[in-house]
Amino acid sequence: MDVIIIGAGKVGYTLAKFLSKEEDNITVIDNNIDALNSIIEKLDIMGIKGNGTSLKILHEAGISKADLVISVTGSDEVNMLCSLAAKKLGAKYTIARVRAPQYSEEILMLKDELGIDLVINPEKEAALEIAKLIKFPSVRSVDTFAKGKVDLVGFTILEGDGLDGEAIQDIKYLKDSILISGIERDGEIHIPSGDFVLHKNDKLYVIGEHKKIEVFFKRLGKFQDRIKNPLIIGGGRITHYLVNIIDSLRVTSKIIELDLDKCIELNETLPEAIVINGDGTDHELLLSENLQEADAFIALTGRDEENVLTSLFAINNNVKNVITKVTRFNYNVIAKNVGIDTIISPKAITANKILKYIRFLKNKKKCCIENIYKIFDEQAEAIEFLVREDVKFLNRKLKDINIINDIIIATIVRNDKIIIPSGDDKIELGDRVIIITKRDKLVDINDIVVRGNK
């Protein structure tokens, strides 16, 4: 695909990095020559210095032949204008990042009137991810498939969990109800077989029906009830969206925000929340606001350093659930190295959603991709396919299909039935099939088998 990315910031860089691996032709437009040169040197892609709203610059970038234009500058209005201009000049599809809450009610209008094919709000998407963790605090990440029927959850084995030293095939809690579909150990990703032995500090991804995953955690003694009293540091856009989302869950949110004007605004727009004007990095303030009694600590300030440091303080004060927003990718590694394992990155969430849409565009005439998530710090993918007539191994037993290494068929959803497949199961027309893979660029379910064995 010929892709033009307008904006060479963190999201633009992440998208260019992902898409360059997919062998797309990438051109990045930005006014900032330093940011542009950095992205060109690191990724070996085309770059044009200029304003993405300039018709001259758009023509220079080859707008009339572009398959996709992605506008991710720091301005909502510029992103909308770029998308409108790109569509008028011949681009097939457009994506715009639109962040301001006042536009969130107008998404359909933006798509219909301006011709924007996909509108993404990173802060709202991040809030939705955090809301999943509030509903299911036993885990450290939650991705959903098959229209909410299947969860893929990540968690870390701790001392005393009962899994340390166990081979997967010997774990009585698993049986046929859920599947350990991936394991991270010392930075290396494993697609495990039954004889794989688990160890303390392994990060596991488990897939299955939500209720059965809950039963698994209860048997392990790791199940936690839904969060009811979170303490949130930072009163920005993510907090605004999050409190609105979780309000229906009867959650009492307490927000600490340094800016007085923001506090006044939060009081007006979020009447059910408790808003405190103060410095969320002040340890004495956190303790006086009953940090140790909070069932979750959520760090959402605009500074990664503050989020990491306050999260560490919460962990040291035995808060069970700590969720940390991190913007810069190098801070992900730092945060994990110091014991923070529930990290929210709006940039990565945005890039993930755009990547899913691009895979859909590439493959919409074939076996359709319904969902895609980057997992294990973007080293692996979980992909949901909707099975159509062109699948070459329909109605064949899985044990008779030569599936490529580093790919696992994790779940088959057939109508309302969720199947953790064995070798005797088959893939049928209309199934939703969820696979886990370490391979990049997988866009067709037919590509999971060795060539010549379809």
From TrEMBL:
Keyword NAD among UniProt keywords: yes
Keyword annotations? Ion transport, NAD, Potassium, Potassium transport, Transport
One Gene Ontology cellular component: plasma membrane
Task: State the name under which the record lists this protein.
Answer: Trk system potassium uptake protein TrkA
Encoding gene, per UniProt annotation? trkA_1
RCK N-terminal domain ranges (all copies): 1-120, 227-344
**SUPFAM superfamilies given for it?**
NAD(P)-binding Rossmann-fold domains, TrkA C-terminal domain-like
The source's domain of life comes to: Bacteria
Q: Which PROSITE patterns match?
A: RCK_C, RCK_N
RCK C-terminal domain location: 140-222, 370-451
Its source organism is Clostridium disporicum
The GO terms describing molecular function are: potassium ion transmembrane transporter activity
Which InterPro entries does this UniProt record tie to the protein?
K_uptake_TrkA, NAD(P)-bd_dom_sf, RCK_C, RCK_C_sf, RCK_N, Trk_Ktr_HKT_K-transport
